Amino acid sequence: MKDAISISNLRFSYPGLPEPVFENLNLVIKKGSRFGIFGPNGAGKTTLIGCITGLIKYQSGSILLNGLEVVKNLQHIKKQFGYVPQDFSLYPELTPMENLMFFASWAGLNKSLSKKRALEVLEILGLSGVKNKQVKKFSGGMKRRVNLAIGVIHQPEILFLDEPTVGVDIHSRQAIISYLKKLNSEGTTLVYTSHQLSEAEELCDDVALFDEGKIRVHDSLPNLLKQHRHDGLEGLFLELTGKKFRDS
Q1: Distance of CA 163 to the CA centre of its chain
Q2: The CA-based dihedral angle spanning residues 229, 233, 238, 239, taken in that order and rounded to the nearest 10 degrees
Q3: Residue 176: pLDDT band by 50, 70, 90 thresholds?
């Protein structure tokens, strides 16, 4: 299995902070995997995703996405990945169809393909019946599904997911998880981060636990649970990152 993402000796620091967020960080994510990145608040998860997607410029080391260095090939690799952020990345005054047509065009799809892809994704995510209604009138779960549709409209090879089901009801959650598994079965690499550890156990087959900018463990989820004698990710998380509060 080839590498979707390869990180070598990554170093990144924010101006004014005494310690770097990452120092000599190394990580490989295989193509076609369902990869979970977990850690307490401040562990560096969001910063790492920002570096991989080119939103944050790192000081040294390298990040290869599908074999291409992110910094040197940013315009090209943008078409190879999708990003579903925790905050809604959509235009609430527009309809789902209008949102998807806009973002598909931004990703380089022509009008005919944009419309075809939009109708397909809306149908799969149960939004066909409301495709011409303003998104601002939707429930949180429906907005989450629109958010996901935007992230996959251009059929990315790698999909980054930051809390993709936060605040949704059980029906929307199941629709989102089912669709993500379908995408993965068709070859899409999923890179997922969330605080919902029970959901992570359902979705992820490979896991890296971060703390203080370092990878504490990285292995398949079954191997990690067996090695550390836990029956769930929550117990493993607490063992490796401690129980002190991290939300201050």
Answers
A1: 8
A2: 20
A3: confident
For residue 213, give the nearest of 37, 57, 43, 58 by alpha carbon. Answer: 43
**pLDDT tens per residue across span 69-78:** 998 998 888 8
Instruction: Supply the Cα-derived Rg of the chain in whole angstroms.
Output: 18
Contact 70, 54 (CB under 8 A): yes
Query: Residue 43's Cα: distance from chain center in Å?
Result: 16
What is the tens place of the pLDDT at every residue in 210-235?
A: 888 888 888 877 777 666 566 556 66
How many alpha carbons lie under 13 Å from residue 166 in its C-beta half-sphere?
14
Residue 234 is predicted with a pLDDT of: 64
**pTM recorded for the entire structure:** 0.87
User: Which residues, at least 6 apart from 73, have a Cβ–Cβ distance to it below 8 Å?
Assistant: none
Order of all β-strands in the sheet with 60-65 = 22-30, 3-12, 60-65, 68-69
Which string of DSSP letters, residue by residue, matches 61-115?
EEEEETTEETTTTHHHHTTTEEEE-SS--S-TTS-HHHHHHHHHHHTT--HHHHH
Neighbours of 207 (CB within 10 A): 25
Report helix, strand or coil for 7. Answer: strand
For 142-200, the DSSP string reads: HHHHHHHHHHHTT--SEEEEESTTTT--HHHHHHHHHHHHHHHHTT-EEEEE-S-HHHH
Q: Residue 216 and residue 228: Cα distance in Å, rounded?
A: 13
Quick one: angle between helices 170-185 and 140-152, nearest 10?
A: 10
Between helix 140-152 and helix 111-124 the angle, nearest 10°, is 140
